[in-house]
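so the lab meeting is tmrw and i was supposed to have these ready like two days ago... anyway. pasting both below. for each one the top line is the aa sequence and the line under it is the structure tokens. i havent really looked at them closely yet so no promises
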Amino acid sequence: MKQLIFIIISIFYSFFLNAQKSNLAPSIVATDEYFGTKIVDKYRNLENLDNPSTKKWMKEQTDYTNSILGKIPKRKFYLNQRLEFDQRQGYSISNLNITNNDKYFYLKKNGNEKVAKLYYRERFSGEEILLYDPANYKSNEQNHQFVINYISPDLVGNRVVIAMAEKGKELSEVIIMDVKSKYIYPEVIINTAPANIGGINWLDDNSGFFYTYFPIKDPKSSDFYKNAQVILYKIGTDPKKVVDVFSASNNPELKMDEKKAPIILDSNDRFYIGMLLDNEYYRQTFIIAKQDLLEGKRTWKPLYNKEDKVRSLQLSDNDLFFLSQYNSQNYTLCKTNLVKPDFRNPEVLIPEKEDEVIGQYRVTKDGIYYTTTKNGVEAKLYQYKEGKDSSIEPPYPSGSISLKAKGKDFSEIWVSCSGWANEEQRFRYDLRTGLFSPESLTPITDYPEFRDIIVKEITVKARDGEEIPLSLIYNKNIKMNGKNPVLIDSYGAYGYSRTPFFSRIYLLWANQGGIFAIAHVRGGGEKGKKWRLGGYKETKPNTWRDLIDCTEYLINEKYTSKDKVAIWGASAGGITVGRAITERPELFKAAILEVPSINTLRNVLSMDINSEEYGNIKDPKEFKALQEMDAYYHIKKGVKYPATFITAGINDPRVAAWEPVKFAAKLMADNGSKNPVLLQVDYEGGHGNNTTAAHGHANLSDIFAFAFWQLGHPDYQPQNQKK
């Protein structure tokens, strides 16, 4: 029987390989030289996504990939399970906004619905009212399916801004609703992305708001994020007549970088704070009196710069609260005076904790509540008041804790707790009694099929002695005999921490006999500043080598074996996974590269803002770093690479589709193994967001089906197609 299965698989792979090799991508070679090093780019032509030959090849590869995935018996298992879970849960809630007068605005998606709708209620216990269904937006036009990706009620909840997006696009179309009458104002604001950049910040009298405007609509343009402006919009006026109040063009005296998006932050009664967004950990900010800005005066002044190492600024009367890494690794919580701020010698309220990184904090009438995490996976809750720092025991041990509060004049504080195997629950905390009262808007659902799933948090010693946190999710009944399929998810960039959240798709993997792992590699923020800088520019090799070391640990400890390991990286995680398979191709059976940043030498030229994270190609040291982390550059002819599934979003402005397309083309041409290389271009998506639930579930279902297929799960093996 085993011999028959082997013959069937061999026939299938032979058919697959011959079909793919006969349709390699068109190639036009380009050569660049940097500091005496020649870089040969075999597929530079594929960067033109509008070229007919490129479009034809992408479409052929996508069709072919879907035909191959279609042969997997349980390709839609994860999709169907997620849809079933949605219906079992009944409904889900997101984007909760609570005004200071206790009006609740939120998005709610019922289990049988494709998209969420906007709802409203007065107080937590109030009657729920449907405000807006996105299906009604442009309902007279065909081929439109919008999702609401952002909402913002005004300060008293009389009006609400609703941002609509479709097909994975970053830019939204913004409409305004009168809550009481449900009247939709005829004016539509375009070319903004409040869900990702800047949000909506209402004027104190609720007559209008600020938003960030992007002049370029085409997400494939290298100038997409350039020359953005903060616009002051007054309700009922023509949005085409933009009133620029903060930008490089409007404020040349500030010498703002046109590549960085300006935003205006929430502020106090007297001042507005302006900030320049980029991919740096710390950012440049400015301050202006509210009255000056509203009168058209240009009296912006610098507040702090990147060298001050300030994050999470909050204004309260004459005080500025912030997190500082100026003289710390894991942050200190500080305060300084608004009139004469000193960010380098502030009043330190909460000193640095040795093995805990300070995360969120909220200023309330009763003091400051704040959270910390250890290794990014163990969360704690504290309260600071009048010089005293007190620990608060959360309702249950949590991997992640988030906070919501009304502000300095209110006592209300809400605490949301979650973990890899614990569904998020929301509580109101009563300081007087010390009790947590459940106030979840979403029902807590029973998942009996996951009761045997456990979570194990360990650390793995890397080759240089660093301790790498590794989260493991698996069924407690499996045997550690080296035969378990393992899927390792890894990111490691921008100081972003992979904090625990309740992911039913991870649990589904574990429920089918697999081990799901999250490698908290360097480049993230799990262990503070040193962790972020340990996988950054010249130190970036630590990121993928941490993943390699975690993989070898799991093999050596008999969790799995080489032919049972798949690795998965999305976006900047593409560097991690791409370089892991090009440096140690024999170590992995399969790799998933989801909208991956994977051709960094070209990425920083088309998206200059990324040079702050990856490196500047004009600097000789940083060029070498870019060259080293470029997985496309490191593909070598004849090397046997693992099976690889690569996805791209045609509307993706963060990682242009040509990056994964080029990588797929070169890997197909140079691969010395019979392992499949699949490219799937999503023509309805972008960077993995702003699509319907079913669309997102289907994309993830393909990823998990591919992984189980390659790792030999018997339920996912294609049947013999050749007679």
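ok protien two:
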Amino acid sequence: MGSDAEIWIVLTGLCLMVGLLIADRLRPGLVLFSIVVLFMCAGIVTPEEVLAGFGNKGVITVALLFLVSEGVRRSDALGHLVERLLPEKKSMTIRRGYARILPTIASVSAFLNNTPVVVVFIPIIKQWASRTGLPLRKFLIPLSYAAILGGMCTLIGTSTNLVVHGMMLEAGLEGFTMFELGKVGIFIAIAGTLYMIFFAAKRLPDENAPNGEEHPARNEESRIVEAVLGPRFPGINRSFEEFDFRTHYGAEIREIRRGGVVLPDPERQSFREGDTLVLDTDGTFIRTWGDSSVFLLLSNGKEYKPLCPPWKKWLALALLTLMIAGATFGSLPFMQQLLPGTRMDMFFWVAVVTVLMACFGIFPAKKYTKFISWDILVTIASALAISRAMTNSGLADLIAGHLITLSGNVSPWGVLAVLYITTNLITELITNNAAAAFAFPIALSAAEQLGVNPMPFFVAICIAASASFSSPIGYQTNMIVQGIGNYRFRDFVQAGLPLNLIAFTLTMALIPLFWQF
């Protein structure tokens, strides 16, 4: 147990971290790592505890899943699937379009990283909406929401679930099985999808989002391209004067969109992650930069498909199926007898499939580092160290005690509700992985003080940290569709707040049915 001074240091560090994340002047990974270094200098965490997060099994699994997702994306299996679901009938309605694509998106994102799923689907849906005359802005936010809902259903559906799973293992507890979170997540996904099919369209803006066709090209060689800036863009937080975009990329910036509005005087602005740039380019821009990790999405009104032979498409799907089946059945007794001494868990099968995809060239093995979001990994690893600081200092026990008092001191249900709401608010303000890592030690301490099973609390953390529907900040897919769809913050609140309430209500009702306190 730490001292009062250590508690105040950790609390001050957390407040500083939240302020820096909201200000968005530095990358989240650097912000969290800086706070970890502060705690290490204060002697609250040891260097070994700082490094432990980078060797966490959940963190490494997240890194490998980026490569698996890239392999599936390059195979174009997802694009082929969604194209078959979107008929060209002019009589197609928004509701029928939702019914066709949202369940598929949720199902796919249960097994792949949400960001590449959304990036693959945006250009396809954009073209389809244009051909059928449907407003694009009715579809992009539901696309992101469906990906988030699907991620709640499996262990690998989102990095948040793997973070909590890894922390459970470090605490000496049994982690989640492949579909354990689906006991709650599937019901939330079904209810959320039904909500979007029947009600979401009325809560989303009607006018079409601006696109490249509104910016006539200067000559036949020019093309208008929308580019969403990723965390690896070298000009992040640098002004237009400091970073010459035209010299670096051979394209001229016509406008920049942020937070649903076109920024005035772009020459005086600084580049930010998630900004959508409207570029005047030549015909080679997307071919040159289509595989670059500096842009989350490039769109010129035509679908960009990496060249991939058909056999790679089927092999990628077969390997994905192997990974899912292996992780599902790998812990069963007969599998343990088949390979005694080998723990055939999620990490085992993701590692095997990643190496096989590299061997068969499903993703470029020489460029594998480009497809991993290193800032997310640093964020997760640093959040794990901050979680350890909360435990070492005694702050987690202190907060848990106050949660118990706040909930009336009579039932773990009250603690469960307060923990869920707190985690959900944090994830809307900063990031989902950081919110889960902060909530975990509080949940564990609360369970110990109450003398109850901590599993219901851990499940609630996973759902709450993923349920980022009312803000474009907490989830990267929300930020991507905000730029492309030119949405304002209030559009997410209007469409997403009912989803937050649905997720909270079902979580509170279902968790006690499947996991006893």
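from a quick look at the 2nd one: The two ends are 26 Å apart (CA to CA). The chain is about 60% helix and 5% strand. will dig more after coffe
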